[in-house]
Design goal:
Layout: H1 14-18, H2 21-30, E1 34-36, E2 41-44, H3 47-53, E3 59-60, H4 82-89, H5 99-110, H6 113-136, E4 139-141, H7 142-147, H8 149-159, H9 169-177, H10 186-212, H11 218-224, H12 234-265, H13 267-275, H14 280-290, E5 296-301, E6 305-307, E7 310-312, E8 317-321, H15 322-325, H16 360-377, E9 381-383, E10 402-405
Parallel strand pairs: 2-8
Antiparallel strand pairs: 1-2, 3-5, 4-10, 5-8, 6-7, 9-10
Helix pairs in contact: 4-10, 4-12, 5-11, 6-8, 6-16, 8-12, 9-10, 9-12, 10-12, 12-14, 12-16
Length: about 400
């Protein structure tokens, strides 16, 4: 078992962030698990292991359903960070059964396939309007002009957030998501706490308004969700709404810009897609695999586990490398090659097991809508300037993607 510090794995190095996939190949070649001292985590790079561990109940997104911080050998977060942790820890992504089971069941009653399907015309219309604006301007920033406004507006529409309030959502989300990076700074924590307080206060008022006057929106649905004597608490509703926004648009925004950046770098594949729009569903899956928006997903070890002869003790943290798993040659033939016709594509970009992304169907609808609109209305779209990579590892994206019409 090699120490990753001796390898090319360095999640703070701009060269690594630009292209982490060679370092992942080195990790996979060196073994199935590696201790990474800078974050005190065990890195798991292989697809088979990541896929199995996502379903392994000896691991958890939290440990507080079984242990105190002291029992688990961990230090409680600083008191001044509490607003962020209250918000985060009541969302189903960071809960384990039985709380996760109860909340996901109740949320599923409001966030139904029918709810998602009903949004399709709105998503397509909005995507078309956003792309029309880009075309009329002769180009622009694909990130700010199309990729960001589409999923934010869709989630806001679904939650019932008035248009006049939507400008606040993206900054709040960005500040909160900063805490999901490795070893976040105190400045990042301060911003996340402030955004958590402001967003929570806003949603409290919105929930109170929907209690008085229910509407045909998800907040009203969450209030009404009822099953076997259970209802969501106010905090669970707030945390669910924030999770749906954060997870629901961060992945879609970054999948859009990462995907188009990959297409511009693979002109043969882009030409094939332009010639045959029926490739869009397969293209979305391949682009999600090829440059994964969420590179790493963490789990706590609740009971000792063994990987390839290495015992990982209770209290440790495992970092599953989604980006590496999605490039594992044991599963994907020629993984470094972008192939929009790839048939067998069991990527894990939406996770797996009980924490499989509840919003995956909506994300696919949004990605298909924007891609269709761009292919139809801007068939000569091309890169206008080399993009800058965001200085983030866990949530992988670009600072912007300047495009123009050819």
């Amino acid at each position: 078992m090699a120490a990753p510090s001796a390898l090319a794995f360095d999640p703070w190095d701009p060269a690594f962030l630009a292209d982490p996939y060679p370092a992942y190949a080195e990790l996979r070649a060196r073994g199935r698990v590696h201790y990474f001292e800078p974050t005190n985590q065990w890195l798991v790079p292989h697809h088979a292991d990541v896929s199995a561990l996502l379903r392994d109940r000896r691991l958890g997104r939290t440990y507080q359903h079984r242990f105190s911080h002291e029992d688990f050998g961990r230090t409680a977060p600083p008191a001044e960070h509490e607003p962020f942790h209250v918000l985060n820890d009541h969302g189903m992504l960071d809960l384990e059964p039985p709380d996760h089971t109860r909340i996901r069941r109740l949320v599923s009653k409001a966030f139904t396939p029918r709810t998602v399907e009903r949004l399709k015309p709105y998503v397509r219309e909005l995507a078309g309007e956003l792309v029309s604006g880009l075309v009329e301007a002769g180009g622009g920033d694909l990130l700010t002009d199309v990729a960001e406004p589409l999923p934010v507006a869709v989630i806001a529409e679904m939650l019932g957030i008035p248009e006049s309030d939507r400008a606040q959502l993206r900054p709040w989300s960005a500040d909160i998501c900063g805490m999901y990076e490795l070893n976040p700074s105190e400045d990042t924590a301060t911003k996340a706490v402030r955004a958590s307080v402001e967003f929570s206060e806003y949603l409290l008022e919105l929930i109170a308004a929907r209690r008085k006057e229910p509407g045909d929106d998800l907040i009203s649905g969450l209030i009404a969700a009822y099953d076997e004597g259970d209802r969501l608490t106010e905090q669970e509703m707030i945390s669910t709404a924030v999770l749906l926004l954060n997870a629901g648009h961060e992945a879609t925004v970054n999948a859009t810009v990462n995907g188009w950046w990959a297409l511009f770098r693979n002109p043969g594949q882009l030409a094939a897609l332009r010639a045959e729009h029926s490739l869009i569903p397969a293209a979305i899956e391949e682009l999600m695999r090829y440059d994964t928006p969420l590179q790493l997903f963490e789990r706590w070890v609740l009971d000792d586990i063994e990987i390839d002869g290495t015992t990982i003790p209770r209290g440790a943290e495992i970092a599953m490398l989604f980006g590496s798993a999605n490039h594992d040659p044991e599963v994907f033939q020629n993984p470094g090659h972008l192939d929009l016709t790839r048939k067998d594509n069991p990527h894990i970009s939406f996770s797996a097991g009980i924490h499989y992304c509840i919003g995956a169907p909506l994300a696919r609808i949004e990605l298909a809508a924007s891609m269709t609109a761009l292919l139809q209305q801007a068939p000569t779209l091309r890169l206008a300037a080399e993009p800058e990579r965001k200085p983030n590892f866990v949530i992988r994206g670009l600072e912007g993607l300047r495009v123009e019409l050819g």
